[in-house]
Write a structure and sequence with these properties.
Blueprint (H helix, E strand, L loop, with lengths): L3 E6 L4 E6 L5 E7 L10 H19 L12 E6 L4 H10 L5 E5 H10 L4 E6 L3 E6 L5 E5 L11 H17 L6 H9 L5 H9 L5 H6 L1 H9 L3 H25 L17 E5 L6 H14 L4 E2 L6 H12 L6 H7 L6
Parallel strand pairs: 1-4, 4-5, 6-9, 9-10
Antiparallel strand pairs: 1-2, 2-3, 6-7, 7-8
Helix pairs in contact: 1-2, 3-11, 4-9, 8-9, 9-10
Length: 332
């Protein structure tokens, strides 16, 4: 039986699914991060994570390891650049149908199961992508932590540190974030905190992790933390609104109009959206611009979007019934 390999590789984790020729999911596993291949050690880390995670699923199925397998098709949805990643994957994956796409592509496929709509992704970074009924696609954002990623976990962490610095400088509002971050990160001062990041001792992923403490402070009633999270929601909504304006709004559609010519499904995924302040502000801002849109969680997770793309690359169209059964497969 031919095996179909689906991977969703990100800055936090790598998810792998193996499926059979008729859409039956056979196994799954989660590994470490597999992004940043342009950094020293990045290509080696990608190869190691893919080999370890895929081999774990193959072993669970009683199948030969990856170097002895020829997959019917394989699709990798990956954060960041795809050129370096594809070169590595072409060397370690045997298949006649290999797709390596930006993670917004497979996330969109999973969110709408191929129907018109858009998705906003907000994890360590942020990006939005949409597709209309004619198959036109548009990506907004995804410019990375130096020049973009507005509303992402990294953005939230950076805003928290700015809020701490502003309070200490005397012109920022007092915030529980100051004491919380210094205590949880075991640093004596804001200056010591900054030094950890400027020296490179703490990574951008570490800064993105600060979003968890911002969420805690907001839940405990800290106004500054709540303002940061609500602004994150508004920033993410801007990406969705930009996609709608290009792909779904006619030339005479005014912002705030109740009906669009074709109301798209607006979906969202990523750990940032698990915060109530972010999600509520995101929904309010999108509906404030285009009241007729539907805002719902993805139909399928990104890794199953990769699986759909793998089948498509092999010329196989699965029925909607099979895709619906995937939503019951847990956990991912």
């Amino acid at each position: 039986m031919g095996l179909f390999l689906a991977v969703d590789g990100g800055q936090t984790a790598t998810r792998v699914v193996l499926a059979g020729e008729e859409g039956q999911i056979l196994g799954q596993a989660t590994g470490g991060p597999s992004n940043h291949t342009e950094e020293p050690g990045g290509p080696e880390r990608l190869e190691q994570v893919i080999l370890e995670t895929v081999n774990r699923v193959l072993a669970d199925l009683g199948r030969a390891p990856i170097d002895q397998q020829e997959f019917a098709a394989a699709c990798f949805g990956m954060t960041g650049e795809t050129i370096i990643k594809k070169r590595i994957l072409e060397r370690i994956i045997k298949t006649r149908h290999l797709s390596v796409v930006h993670d917004s592509v497979n996330a969109l496929m999973g969110a709408t199961a191929g129907d018109p709509g858009l998705i906003v992704i907000a994890g360590t970074g942020s990006v939005a992508r949409g597709i209309d009924a004619r198959g036109r696609q548009l990506r907004v954002g995804g410019w990375g932590h130096l020049f973009g990623d507005e509303g992402s976990a990294y953005w939230i962490g950076r805003e928290a540190i700015r809020a701490v610095a502003s309070e200490l400088d005397g012109f920022g509002e007092p915030t529980a974030l100051t004491r919380l971050l210094l205590t949880q990160l075991a640093v004596p001062s804001a200056y010591a905190l900054m030094e950890k990041y400027y020296s490179g001792e703490w990574s951008r992923d570490h800064m993105a992790g600060l979003a968890l403490w911002v969420s805690k402070a907001a839940s405990d009633g800290d106004r500054v933390a709540q303002v940061i999270l609500r602004e994150a929601g508004r920033q993410l909504a801007k990406s969705a609104i930009a996609v709608i304006a290009v792909l779904f709004a006619s030339s005479d559609t005014a912002a705030g109009q109740a009906e669009l010519p074709k109301a798209p499904l607006v979906s969202y995924v990523g750990g940032v959206f698990e915060n109530q302040f972010v999600l509520a502000e995101f929904k309010d801002a999108v509906r404030g611009a285009y009241a007729g849109v539907r805002i719902d969680p993805p139909l399928l997770p990104p890794v199953l979007g990769s699986l759909l793309l793998a089948y498509q690359s092999a010329g196989i169209e699965l029925s909607g019934r099979i895709c619906r059964t995937w939503s019951n497969v847990q956990p991912f």
